[in-house]
Amino acid sequence: MAMVKKYSALIFLIVFIITSAQNLTIAYELTYKPSTSRKDSSRSKLYFLDIINNESIFRDAMRRQSDSLIFYGNGYGLGYPNNINDQLYLKKDLKTNTLLKYMVLPLSRDVFYVGVNEALTWKLFPETKIIDEIKCQKAEVNYGGRSWTAWFSENIKPSEGPYVFNGLPGLVVEIYDSNNDYLFKLVKIRKSNHKNLFSMKGGKKVSWEELTKLQQDYYKDPFSFTKTQSIKVMTDDGSGGLKKVNLRESTLSIQSDLKEYNNVIELNKKIDYK
């Protein structure tokens, strides 16, 4: 939580400057538990909500940097983690409130996206509290099979927040689920001088059912793409050279991670990997 303290004074100073800005960069720290069975599984990541010209993207810091590298022609970016459960990447059209959740298969780099159509029905409460010198009001909502408590500030616009959470009378400063598996907290907000979101390009639109099938197929054979394309999979041999990957061992390792670290944010879309 040191990151939060570091930026609290900055937030307080610029709140009233940026409330009318259209192009913003908003950073959230996500603390989450990718595994429900391992008490030591808690992790933290920095995420960015970039807003430009009525469009926004929510993604982690590594993905944001990777998108920028790809945009400027630097190859394939920074790669993707083997555990597809750990991907939170959301595009939003602020005019139509259209939300698209993206997933990338790590080896083939195939991009898929699905519409997020679950309505957010917020319940507001008169209760208030101060978070990092910002007066916030309480709200609750159900999403993804989880119950969420949010604290938002009417003094900070726009009416946005991390991931899918928007539609309140101000910016979400903090939001967490009732299981304490996910906690998003505002750490930084500033005007953006960028003219481009450097967003992920292309992709195939799929239904949630099709997305589930893609994830199940990936679990069954993470290296199916390399096999059908006769691509050799190599890794660092520890001495500056390359060696062939043992596909069986790597497959078992990926499958184990997918089963163990499967506490996904959309609990109602959780896959029982077998």
From TrEMBL:
This is GLPGLI family protein.
